[in-house]
Design a protein that fits this description.
The protein has two domains: about 300 residues, no CATH class; about 80 residues, no CATH class. It has 14 helices and two strands. A two-stranded antiparallel ribbon has the order 1-2.
Length: about 400
């Protein structure tokens, strides 16, 4: 029992830390992208300054300037923006271990997809995370990233291919989290390996009385642009485990492909506005079409879905399925070793509870295969079709 309690508290603490740190990182990142794009030249700026921006906030006025490379001498105080990114990744990795690796049989493995042991699934997750990052970093250092459009298209195809592979190896929930973890790792590595080291080189050159090399700033800026366009997709992927119709349906990898496309498109709208360019209103038509596509794809149902042509089944048949496949966790006293209370306080151990939660059962076990997690109780496609037929018939006792 105590193992489960400690795991639950660790999950809460590190999830809280992860969300707070991510808010700080994303907020500062979006702010500086906006600031960088909105800078305008004027006649009274110091030498080497690219532009200035006047802003008002909290009752005060702020005049902000940006140097093309760096000022001629170091200021007495300098604020670094890095720990938000590092804390986001470190807390996220701990959370991944606590939730997905320690309970891999529930959240990372789906035996109906591929019969992996928990250890194999965790090892595959970690190794693919490292390999994907190394491939991205190698591509950037090879000079391919300088060809922005080709690099963006290649990166998109690469991530979609990973999504397809992961959804055929891991559970849908695990696959979405894995893609999100890879994108998040790439973003933090950009800060840790390129942006901050290059800024330190600029500082060191200034302290030595030498002019900084402009290429250091350009390389950091390029990685910052990558992070800018990756932020919105990674946020969706990281919260997707709350939405079974995203990760638990037949075409979940195509849903990832749409999300990876929509995020950069939406960022393009805001970047254009920040830069004072004509607003690309067409972006919202694309976004609406993408959301409709996600809705249509999610309606395809779970993998290996079956359609029942039989009359609406009696409630007793549905109750037997739920009792044998779901009530081991969704009971007043769950019998699954790592679960101490019914998840989300949803009980499915008698007729009244099953009827009350009919729509939740549908979203998680009939219209998707999100539950049972990892399909640990081996619910069959026929059983899911029976529940779906009962719901279509009005979900009433008969």
């Amino acid at each position: 029992m105590w193992d489960s309690v400690i795991t639950e508290w660790a999950s809460l603490i590190f999830r809280w830390l992860h969300v707070v740190a991510a808010m700080g990182w994303i907020g500062s990142s979006f702010y500086f992208i906006h600031l960088d794009l909105s800078l305008k030249p004027s006649g009274d700026l110091p030498e080497g300054v690219a532009g200035e921006a006047w802003q008002v906030h909290g009752g005060g006025f702020y005049r902000i300037v940006k140097y093309l490379v760096a000022p001629k001498s170091m200021p007495d105080e300098l604020t670094w923006f890095k720990w938000e990114a590092y804390t986001t990744w470190l807390s996220g990795f701990v959370l991944m271990v606590v939730v997905y690796y320690l309970d891999a049989e529930l959240f990372l493995v789906d035996k109906s997809v591929l019969d992996l042991t928990p250890g194999q699934a965790a090892a595959f997750s970690f190794c693919s995370l490292a390999l994907a990052f190394l491939l991205y970093e190698g591509a950037c250092r090879s000079g391919l990233a300088r060809h922005e459009r080709a690099f963006a298209i290649g990166g998109y195809v690469f991530l979609v291919a990973l999504a397809y592979a992961f959804t055929h190896i891991l559970s849908g929930r695990g696959a979405f989290n894995q893609i999100g973890a890879i994108v998040g790792t790439i973003m933090v590595a950009n800060v840790f390996l390129t942006i901050i080291p290059n800024q330190k080189k600029i500082v060191a050159a200034l302290l030595a009385g030498q002019p900084p090399d402009p290429k250091w700033g350009k390389a950091g800026k390029l990685r910052s642009v990558h992070n800018n366009y990756l932020t919105l997709p990674v946020v969706v992927l990281m919260i997707s485990n709350h939405y079974p119709l995203l990760f638990g349906t037949r075409y979940n990898w195509l849903i990832v492909a749409v999300v990876l496309l929509l995020g950069p498109v939406i960022r393009h709208f805001f970047n254009a506005r920040h830069a004072g360019k004509k607003s690309p209103w067409w972006v919202w038509a694309v976004a609406a079409a993408g959301m409709l596509a996600i809705g249509w794809l999610s309606a395809a149902g779970p993998r290996n879905a079956k359609t029942s042509t039989a009359p609406t089944p009696p409630f007793s048949e549905v109750a037997d399925i739920v009792s044998s496949r779901c009530s081991m966790c969704h009971a007043a006293e769950p019998v699954w070793s790592s679960i101490t209370t019914a998840p989300k306080d949803i009980l499915l151990d008698d007729a009244s509870h099953i009827k009350r939660n009919a729509r939740l059962i549908g979203r998680n076990a009939a219209w998707s295969n999100a539950m049972p997690p990892g399909n640990v109780t081996e619910m069959t496609p026929d059983e899911r079709a029976t529940i779906a037929s009962w719901l279509a018939g009005g979900a009433v006792a008969n």
